[in-house]
Amino acid sequence: MNRRDALFCYLLVAALLLGSLIARASDSLSGSWTIQHSDEAGKVQFALIRHSHHGESSHSSDWPDSTFVGLDLSQTDKRDVHFTITRDAGRFDCEGYIRDGEGAGTFHFFAEPKYAAEMKSLGFDGVDDDKQYTMAVMDVSTAFARQMKSEKLTGLDTDKLIAFRIFNVNAAFIDDLRNAGLPISDSDKLVAFRIHGVTPEMVAFLHQAGYQPDEDTLVAMRIHGATPEWIQQLNKDGYAHVDLEKLIAFRIHGVSPDFIEHLQQLGYQHPEPDQLVAMRIHGVTPDFIANLRARGMQNLTIDQLVSLRIHGID
């Protein structure tokens, strides 16, 4: 090969390499990854940190070992690694180093060209580049989209699918809620249930106790700590089948089993729920009652005690 032919081949290879790099930059999103040990067997704590002109965004959670194709986590020596993570929405090509099951490196994400169209055919619009990347990270598969669509949920859209994956709303959770007696169909309420800890077990307990709570009441109960365990404590003190709204008011204003038991020791065996709330709102405490009795004010009714506090008598 003469010098002219060699120069031509060199320029051709350089052009091909440059074109490949340009295509890689335009067709992929990049960032870094880290991997650490997890407390959960068969999983690792894996983080993806995406770098873009908008800044950095990151996601970290426990991922199954089987997710990482080409990565051997059993070796303890430090070594370079290359592995892939394949989702319906796209592929993560990762490289870096690892030692004793922990390491770091960089990744490039390559979006699956057909994914947005497939999701649109299922009724889920708005899958742009950023959203597709997020759906790949959260593993929003087309099978998951079909499954959620078959649940006949209201308010179900692309963003809700992502939220479902973030908060672990799945078919098993929905079925368990419905089997517990709650005919839920609101996508937003399902996410709220996961955020605040409304469980099928809680729904079943309330139904068995004779309650028929709606979704908003269930969320309010969890926000304010009206748990089945707390309700059972109240039952032992004679407060079974108290209206759920009053139970929530108990939690808001500090009507506790301990407060009720102290009142019972002072001779107030079973104040009405509204009276208990009024006592807490106006500061009628066991100590307040004891101080009044020490000054000779015996046998005051709850309404009288509340009236004294309202009028500033200590």
Largest sheet geometry: 6 strands, antiparallel
Question: Uncertain segments of ≥5 residues (pLDDT<50)?
Answer: 1-27
Total number of strands:
6
Helical content class: 40-55%
Multimeric state of these chains? single chain
- In terms of DSSP E residues, the strand content is 15-25%
Question: CA-to-CA gap between the ends?
Answer: 107 Å
* Radius of gyration using CA atoms only: 30 Å
Query: Mean pLDDT, as a whole number?
Result: 90
Element pattern in H and E: HEEEEEEHHHHHHHHHHHHHH
Give the class from helix and strand content and strand pairing: alpha+beta
- Side by side, the strands of the main sheet go 3-2-1-6-5-4
- Which outline best applies? elongated
Determine the number of helices (DSSP H or I, runs of at least 4 residues).
Answer: 15
Describe the model.
Helices cover 49% and strands 19% of the residues. The chain is α+β, with helices and mostly antiparallel strands and 314 residues long. Among the domains are: 3-111, no CATH class; 245-310, no CATH class. The protein has a six-stranded antiparallel beta sheet with strand order 3-2-1-6-5-4. The N and C termini lie far apart (107 Å).
Task: Describe how the helices and strands are arranged.
Layout: H1 3-27, E1 28-37, E2 43-52, E3 55-64, E4 79-87, E5 90-99, E6 102-111, H2 115-121, H3 129-137, H4 142-149, H5 158-167, H6 171-179, H7 187-196, H8 200-208, H9 215-224, H10 228-236, H11 244-253, H12 257-265, H13 273-282, H14 286-294, H15 302-310
Antiparallel strand pairs: 1-2, 1-6, 2-3, 4-5, 5-6
Helix pairs in contact: 5-7, 6-8, 7-9, 9-11, 11-13, 13-15
